[in-house]
Design brief:
Largest sheet: 4 strands, mixed
Mean pLDDT: 89
Number of strands: 6
Shape: globular
CATH class of one domain: Alpha Beta
Keywords: Oxidoreductase, Peroxidase
Organism: Cytobacillus solani
Strand content: 15-25%
Family: Belongs to the glutathione peroxidase family.
Helix content: 25-40%
Pfam families: GSHPx
CATH topology of one domain: Glutaredoxin
Number of helices: 4
Structural class: alpha+beta
Order of helices and strands: EEEHEHHEEH
GO molecular function: peroxidase activity
CATH superfamily of one domain: Glutaredoxin
Length: 161
């Protein structure tokens, strides 16, 4: 059975990262944008990361420019923006497409596992996927779902009592 651990992604510096490196962790995978109405969700994502990182949560941010060109042209600008404005310390990867012929294969897999309102396609920035410690997609959350509303599901996945 395929899991998220079967995929490689590009880091912000262009090098490859195997998601197998996150094996045994709970993952929250989010397509992000720096100039979107949902951009303030970076603050809530960072709070979740700080609160649960030691228990095994990893948040993986994937900048995407497919929705109204709401991402910077250069990844360095994105990284600086996230750090300066929201104190983001969770990994931000290279800019990707989440829909269409050039979509990142990880996103093809995520969408196959959990469909959304637009069936498989990602509807907008800040769509979130929760992945359990076995690399399986547990749930998909809409862009309007605030990160704080994911806390109970994250806790369950982490098996924190």
């Amino acid at each position: 059975m395929k899991t998220v651990y079967d995929f490689n992604v590009k880091k912000a510096d262009g090098s490859e990262k195997s998601l197998r490196d996150y094996e045994g962790k709970t993952l929250l995978i989010v397509n992000t944008a720096s100039k979107c109405g949902f951009t303030p969700q970076f603050e809530g994502l960072q709070k979740l990361y700080e609160k649960y990182k030691e228990q095994g949560l990893e948040i993986l941010g994937f900048p995407c420019d497919q929705f109204n060109k709401q991402e910077f042209d250069h990844i360095e600008e994105t990284l600086q923006f996230c750090q300066r404005n929201y104190g983001v310390t969770f990994p931000i990867f290279a800019k990707i497409d989440v829909n269409g012929e050039n979509e990142q294969p990880l996103y093809t897999f995520l969408k196959e596992q959990k469909s959304g309102i637009l069936l498989k396609n990602i509807k907008w920035n800040f769509t979130k996927f929760l992945v359990d410690t076995n690399g399986l997609v547990v749930d998909r959350y809409s862009p309007t779902t605030e990160p704080s509303r994911l806390e109970d599901d994250i806790v369950k996945s982490l098996a924190i009592r």
